Protein backbone atom coordinates (compact mmCIF):
# COMPACT_ATOMS: atom_id res chain seq x y z
CA UNK A 1 0.00 0.00 0.00
CA UNK A 2 1.25 3.50 -0.80
CA UNK A 3 2.35 5.24 2.43
CA UNK A 4 -0.21 7.79 3.59
CA UNK A 5 -2.93 6.42 1.29
CA UNK A 6 -5.94 5.10 3.17
CA UNK A 7 -7.51 2.45 0.91
CA UNK A 8 -10.19 1.64 3.52
CA UNK A 9 -12.24 4.74 2.69
CA UNK A 10 -15.31 4.13 0.55
CA UNK A 11 -16.36 6.21 -2.41
CA UNK A 12 -19.67 7.97 -1.95
CA UNK A 13 -20.93 6.50 -5.22
CA UNK A 14 -20.39 2.98 -3.84
CA UNK A 15 -22.58 3.44 -0.76
CA UNK A 16 -25.88 1.62 -0.53
CA UNK A 17 -29.13 3.41 0.31
CA UNK A 18 -28.92 2.08 3.85
CA UNK A 19 -25.35 3.33 4.23
CA UNK A 20 -26.31 6.76 2.86
CA UNK A 21 -29.10 6.97 5.41
CA UNK A 22 -26.76 5.82 8.20
CA UNK A 23 -24.20 8.42 7.12
CA UNK A 24 -26.86 11.14 7.24
CA UNK A 25 -27.81 10.07 10.78
CA UNK A 26 -24.20 10.21 12.00
CA UNK A 27 -23.74 13.59 10.30
CA UNK A 28 -26.69 15.07 12.17
CA UNK A 29 -25.41 13.62 15.45
CA UNK A 30 -21.97 15.15 14.87
CA UNK A 31 -23.32 18.55 13.87
CA UNK A 32 -25.60 18.71 16.91
CA UNK A 33 -22.60 17.97 19.13
CA UNK A 34 -20.56 20.68 17.43
CA UNK A 35 -23.31 23.27 17.86
CA UNK A 36 -23.59 22.37 21.54
CA UNK A 37 -19.81 22.71 21.85
CA UNK A 38 -20.10 26.17 20.28
CA UNK A 39 -22.86 27.06 22.73
CA UNK A 40 -20.75 25.90 25.69
CA UNK A 41 -17.73 27.80 24.39
CA UNK A 42 -19.74 31.02 24.05
CA UNK A 43 -22.00 30.73 27.09
CA UNK A 44 -19.89 32.76 29.54
CA UNK A 45 -19.09 35.73 27.30
CA UNK A 46 -21.85 35.55 24.67
CA UNK A 47 -24.99 34.05 26.27
CA UNK A 48 -27.31 35.22 23.51
CA UNK A 49 -25.19 33.57 20.81
CA UNK A 50 -25.04 30.43 22.95
CA UNK A 51 -28.85 30.26 22.79
CA UNK A 52 -28.63 30.53 19.01
CA UNK A 53 -26.41 27.46 18.78
CA UNK A 54 -28.51 25.53 21.28
CA UNK A 55 -31.51 26.00 18.98
CA UNK A 56 -29.44 24.96 15.97
CA UNK A 57 -28.44 21.79 17.84
CA UNK A 58 -32.12 21.14 18.55
CA UNK A 59 -32.83 21.48 14.81
CA UNK A 60 -30.19 18.85 14.04
CA UNK A 61 -31.73 16.54 16.66
CA UNK A 62 -35.06 16.82 14.85
CA UNK A 63 -33.44 15.88 11.53
CA UNK A 64 -31.74 12.90 13.17
CA UNK A 65 -35.04 11.60 14.53
CA UNK A 66 -36.64 11.87 11.10
CA UNK A 67 -33.77 9.95 9.52
CA UNK A 68 -33.82 7.24 12.19
CA UNK A 69 -37.57 6.79 11.68
CA UNK A 70 -37.02 6.42 7.93
CA UNK A 71 -34.26 3.84 8.55
CA UNK A 72 -36.46 1.85 10.94
CA UNK A 73 -39.28 1.77 8.41
CA UNK A 74 -37.10 0.76 5.45
CA UNK A 75 -34.19 -1.22 6.90
CA UNK A 76 -34.98 -2.05 10.53
CA UNK A 77 -33.45 -1.19 13.88
CA UNK A 78 -29.75 -1.89 13.23
CA UNK A 79 -28.00 1.19 11.81
CA UNK A 80 -24.61 0.56 10.13
CA UNK A 81 -21.64 2.41 11.59
CA UNK A 82 -20.44 4.82 8.94
CA UNK A 83 -19.12 8.32 9.45
CA UNK A 84 -17.65 11.15 7.39
CA UNK A 85 -14.10 9.91 7.83
CA UNK A 86 -15.07 6.58 6.28
CA UNK A 87 -16.01 8.17 2.94
CA UNK A 88 -13.43 9.32 0.41
CA UNK A 89 -13.55 12.99 -0.51
CA UNK A 90 -16.21 13.73 2.09
CA UNK A 91 -16.10 17.10 3.82
CA UNK A 92 -14.55 17.04 7.30
CA UNK A 93 -15.36 19.01 10.41
CA UNK A 94 -12.69 20.77 12.43
CA UNK A 95 -11.58 18.89 15.58
CA UNK A 96 -13.50 20.04 18.65
CA UNK A 97 -10.31 21.16 20.41
CA UNK A 98 -9.90 23.91 17.81
CA UNK A 99 -13.11 25.52 19.06
CA UNK A 100 -11.14 27.14 21.89
CA UNK A 101 -9.19 29.09 19.27
CA UNK A 102 -12.21 30.37 17.33
CA UNK A 103 -13.67 33.83 17.85
CA UNK A 104 -17.36 34.69 17.73
CA UNK A 105 -17.49 35.73 14.07
CA UNK A 106 -15.40 32.73 13.01
CA UNK A 107 -17.81 30.39 14.83
CA UNK A 108 -20.76 32.01 13.06
CA UNK A 109 -18.96 31.56 9.72
CA UNK A 110 -18.22 27.91 10.53
CA UNK A 111 -21.91 27.31 11.27
CA UNK A 112 -22.92 28.84 7.94
CA UNK A 113 -20.43 26.62 6.11
CA UNK A 114 -21.68 23.52 7.96
CA UNK A 115 -25.23 24.18 6.79
CA UNK A 116 -24.11 24.71 3.19
CA UNK A 117 -22.18 21.44 3.21
CA UNK A 118 -25.14 19.59 4.69
CA UNK A 119 -27.35 20.94 1.90
CA UNK A 120 -24.91 19.69 -0.75
CA UNK A 121 -24.73 16.27 0.91
CA UNK A 122 -28.52 15.82 0.97
CA UNK A 123 -28.86 16.84 -2.66
CA UNK A 124 -26.25 14.28 -3.73
CA UNK A 125 -27.71 11.65 -1.41
CA UNK A 126 -31.22 12.15 -2.83
CA UNK A 127 -29.91 11.46 -6.33
CA UNK A 128 -28.35 8.19 -5.13
CA UNK A 129 -31.54 6.71 -3.72
CA UNK A 130 -34.44 4.98 -5.48
CA UNK A 131 -36.80 4.50 -2.55
CA UNK A 132 -39.49 7.15 -2.95
CA UNK A 133 -39.94 7.89 0.76
CA UNK A 134 -36.20 8.19 1.45
CA UNK A 135 -35.66 10.28 -1.66
CA UNK A 136 -38.46 12.64 -0.61
CA UNK A 137 -37.05 12.91 2.94
CA UNK A 138 -33.53 13.64 1.73
CA UNK A 139 -34.86 16.21 -0.74
CA UNK A 140 -36.88 17.88 2.00
CA UNK A 141 -33.82 17.98 4.26
CA UNK A 142 -31.77 19.50 1.44
CA UNK A 143 -34.37 22.26 1.12
CA UNK A 144 -34.38 22.79 4.88
CA UNK A 145 -30.58 22.98 5.00
CA UNK A 146 -30.68 25.50 2.14
CA UNK A 147 -32.87 27.71 4.29
CA UNK A 148 -30.67 26.93 7.28
CA UNK A 149 -27.72 28.47 5.45
CA UNK A 150 -29.08 31.64 7.01
CA UNK A 151 -30.37 29.98 10.19
CA UNK A 152 -27.58 31.43 12.30
CA UNK A 153 -28.55 34.87 11.08
CA UNK A 154 -32.28 34.18 11.53
CA UNK A 155 -31.82 32.96 15.09
CA UNK A 156 -29.43 35.82 15.76
CA UNK A 157 -32.22 38.23 14.82
CA UNK A 158 -34.51 36.42 17.27
CA UNK A 159 -32.06 36.21 20.16
CA UNK A 160 -29.52 38.95 19.52
CA UNK A 161 -31.75 41.96 19.63
CA UNK A 162 -30.16 45.40 19.55
CA UNK A 163 -28.20 45.78 22.75
CA UNK A 164 -27.36 42.06 23.04
CA UNK A 165 -25.79 41.90 19.59
CA UNK A 166 -23.96 45.20 20.06
CA UNK A 167 -22.68 44.11 23.47
CA UNK A 168 -21.43 40.77 22.12
CA UNK A 169 -19.75 42.44 19.15
CA UNK A 170 -18.04 44.91 21.49
CA UNK A 171 -16.90 42.06 23.74
CA UNK A 172 -15.50 40.13 20.77
CA UNK A 173 -13.72 43.23 19.48
CA UNK A 174 -12.29 43.99 22.91
CA UNK A 175 -11.00 40.43 23.24
CA UNK A 176 -9.38 40.63 19.79
CA UNK A 177 -7.67 43.87 20.77
CA UNK A 178 -6.43 42.50 24.10
CA UNK A 179 -5.18 39.18 22.70
CA UNK A 180 -3.75 40.18 19.32
CA UNK A 181 -3.64 43.92 18.66
CA UNK A 182 -2.25 45.20 21.96
CA UNK A 183 0.72 42.80 22.23
CA UNK A 184 1.30 42.98 18.48
CA UNK A 185 1.36 46.77 18.59
CA UNK A 186 3.73 46.77 21.56
CA UNK A 187 5.99 44.40 19.65
CA UNK A 188 5.88 46.47 16.48
CA UNK A 189 6.74 49.62 18.40
CA UNK A 190 9.56 47.90 20.25
CA UNK A 191 10.97 46.30 17.13
CA UNK A 192 10.68 49.39 14.96
CA UNK A 193 12.01 51.92 17.46
CA UNK A 194 14.50 50.00 19.60
CA UNK A 195 16.42 48.61 16.59
CA UNK A 196 16.84 52.01 14.97
CA UNK A 197 19.85 52.90 17.11
CA UNK A 198 21.96 49.72 16.61
CA UNK A 199 21.13 49.43 12.90
CA UNK A 200 21.88 53.02 11.94
CA UNK A 201 24.82 53.28 14.34
CA UNK A 202 26.35 50.29 12.56
CA UNK A 203 25.45 51.71 9.16
CA UNK A 204 27.14 55.07 9.71
CA UNK A 205 30.06 53.58 11.59
CA UNK A 206 30.96 50.98 8.96
CA UNK A 207 29.30 52.11 5.72
CA UNK A 208 29.09 48.37 5.09
CA UNK A 209 25.60 47.17 4.05
CA UNK A 210 26.33 43.50 4.74
CA UNK A 211 27.54 44.14 8.29
CA UNK A 212 24.60 46.45 8.91
CA UNK A 213 22.17 43.79 7.71
CA UNK A 214 23.69 41.14 10.00
CA UNK A 215 23.46 43.46 12.99
CA UNK A 216 19.87 44.35 12.10
CA UNK A 217 18.93 40.69 11.61
CA UNK A 218 20.45 39.70 14.96
CA UNK A 219 18.83 42.63 16.77
CA UNK A 220 15.41 41.96 15.23
CA UNK A 221 15.32 38.21 15.78
CA UNK A 222 16.76 38.53 19.29
CA UNK A 223 14.27 41.24 20.22
CA UNK A 224 11.41 39.16 18.78
CA UNK A 225 12.33 36.09 20.83
CA UNK A 226 12.82 38.14 23.97
CA UNK A 227 9.59 40.11 23.53
CA UNK A 228 7.58 36.98 22.75
CA UNK A 229 8.73 35.10 25.83
CA UNK A 230 8.33 38.18 28.03
CA UNK A 231 4.75 38.74 26.90
CA UNK A 232 3.80 35.08 27.30
CA UNK A 233 5.37 34.81 30.76
CA UNK A 234 4.06 38.12 32.08
CA UNK A 235 0.37 37.15 32.30
CA UNK A 236 -1.45 33.83 31.93
CA UNK A 237 -4.62 35.69 31.01
CA UNK A 238 -6.79 33.98 33.63
CA UNK A 239 -7.44 37.03 35.76
CA UNK A 240 -6.75 39.83 33.30
CA UNK A 241 -8.91 38.31 30.57
CA UNK A 242 -6.26 39.15 27.96
CA UNK A 243 -6.48 35.72 26.37
CA UNK A 244 -4.02 32.93 25.68
CA UNK A 245 -0.41 33.75 26.62
CA UNK A 246 0.74 31.72 23.61
CA UNK A 247 -1.28 33.89 21.22
CA UNK A 248 -0.11 37.10 22.87
CA UNK A 249 3.51 35.93 22.90
CA UNK A 250 3.29 34.95 19.25
CA UNK A 251 1.77 38.30 18.26
CA UNK A 252 4.37 40.27 20.23
CA UNK A 253 7.33 38.19 19.06
CA UNK A 254 6.46 38.14 15.37
CA UNK A 255 5.61 41.84 15.20
CA UNK A 256 8.78 42.79 17.10
CA UNK A 257 10.93 40.86 14.63
CA UNK A 258 9.07 42.33 11.64
CA UNK A 259 9.41 45.83 13.04
CA UNK A 260 13.18 45.54 13.12
CA UNK A 261 13.56 43.62 9.87
CA UNK A 262 11.62 46.31 8.02
CA UNK A 263 14.58 48.68 8.01
CA UNK A 264 17.27 45.98 8.15
CA UNK A 265 16.32 44.24 4.89
CA UNK A 266 17.24 47.20 2.64
CA UNK A 267 20.88 46.60 3.59
CA UNK A 268 20.82 43.49 1.45
CA UNK A 269 21.36 46.05 -1.30
CA UNK A 270 25.16 46.37 -1.76
CA UNK A 271 25.11 50.14 -2.41
CA UNK A 272 25.23 51.86 0.99
CA UNK A 273 23.38 55.11 0.28
CA UNK A 274 20.67 53.41 -1.79
CA UNK A 275 20.05 50.96 1.06
CA UNK A 276 20.09 53.76 3.64
CA UNK A 277 17.61 55.96 1.74
CA UNK A 278 15.22 53.01 1.33
CA UNK A 279 15.61 52.24 5.03
CA UNK A 280 14.74 55.88 5.85
CA UNK A 281 11.53 55.59 3.80
CA UNK A 282 10.58 52.31 5.45
CA UNK A 283 11.14 53.76 8.93
CA UNK A 284 8.80 56.62 8.02
CA UNK A 285 6.13 54.14 6.84
CA UNK A 286 6.57 51.96 9.94
CA UNK A 287 6.15 54.85 12.36
CA UNK A 288 3.05 56.22 10.64
CA UNK A 289 1.59 52.70 10.49
CA UNK A 290 2.01 52.38 14.25
CA UNK A 291 0.23 55.71 14.71
CA UNK A 292 -2.64 54.51 12.49
CA UNK A 293 -2.99 51.22 14.43
CA UNK A 294 -3.06 53.12 17.71
CA UNK A 295 -5.79 55.38 16.34
CA UNK A 296 -7.79 52.54 14.77
CA UNK A 297 -7.73 49.97 17.57
CA UNK A 298 -6.59 51.76 20.73
CA UNK A 299 -8.69 54.90 20.09
CA UNK A 300 -5.69 57.18 20.53
CA UNK A 301 -6.15 60.50 18.68
CA UNK A 302 -4.18 60.17 15.46
CA UNK A 303 -2.05 63.29 15.75
CA UNK A 304 -1.20 62.55 19.36
CA UNK A 305 -0.16 59.01 18.44
CA UNK A 306 1.80 60.29 15.45
CA UNK A 307 3.59 62.89 17.53
CA UNK A 308 4.56 60.38 20.22
CA UNK A 309 5.73 57.66 17.83
CA UNK A 310 7.48 59.88 15.29
CA UNK A 311 9.18 61.98 17.97
CA UNK A 312 10.36 58.88 19.83
CA UNK A 313 11.56 57.25 16.62
CA UNK A 314 13.36 60.40 15.53
CA UNK A 315 15.19 60.66 18.85
CA UNK A 316 16.30 57.01 18.75
CA UNK A 317 17.38 57.35 15.11
CA UNK A 318 19.33 60.51 15.88
CA UNK A 319 21.06 58.81 18.79
CA UNK A 320 22.09 55.88 16.59
CA UNK A 321 23.26 58.10 13.74
CA UNK A 322 25.31 60.35 16.05
CA UNK A 323 26.92 57.38 17.79
CA UNK A 324 27.74 55.77 14.47
CA UNK A 325 29.13 58.94 12.97
CA UNK A 326 31.28 59.57 16.05
What would you say this structure looks like, in words?
The chain has 326 residues and is mainly α. Mean pLDDT is 81; it is low at 1-6. It folds into two domains: 10-161, Up-down Bundle (Ferritin), CATH 1.20.1260.10; 174-325, no CATH class. The longest helix is centred in the middle third of the chain and has 32 residues, at 163-194. It has helices spanning 17-42, 47-74, 104-127, 132-148, 151-159, 163-194, 196-206, 209-234, 245-262, 272-297, 302-325, and strands at residues 10-11, 87-88. The N and C termini lie far apart (69 Å). It is elongated. Strands 1-2 form a two-stranded parallel sheet. The chain is built from eleven helices and two strands, in the order E-H-H-E-H-H-H-H-H-H-H-H-H.
Secondary structure elements and their pairing?
Elements (H helix, E strand, L loop, with lengths): L9 E2 L5 H26 L4 H28 L12 E2 L15 H24 L4 H17 L2 H9 L3 H32 L1 H11 L2 H26 L10 H18 L9 H26 L4 H24 L1
Parallel strand pairs: 1-2
Helix pairs in contact: 1-2, 1-3, 2-4, 2-5, 3-4, 6-8, 6-9, 6-10, 6-11, 7-8, 7-11, 8-9, 10-11
Radius of gyration, whole Å:
28 Å
Q: Estimate the strand proportion.
A: under 5%
CATH topology of the largest domain: Ferritin
Specify the number of helices.
11
Task: Let me know the CATH homologous superfamily of the largest domain.
Answer: Ferritin, core subunit, four-helix bundle
Outline: elongated
- How many domains in all? 2
The CATH class of the largest domain is identified as Mainly Alpha
Average pLDDT for all residues: 81
Helix and strand composition category = mainly alpha
| CATH architecture term of the largest domain | Up-down Bundle
Helical proportion? over 70%
The number of strands is: 2
- Main-sheet strand order equals 1-2
Q: What are the secondary-structure elements, in order, as H or E?
A: EHHEHHHHHHHHH
Q: Biggest β-sheet, characterized?
A: 2 strands, parallel
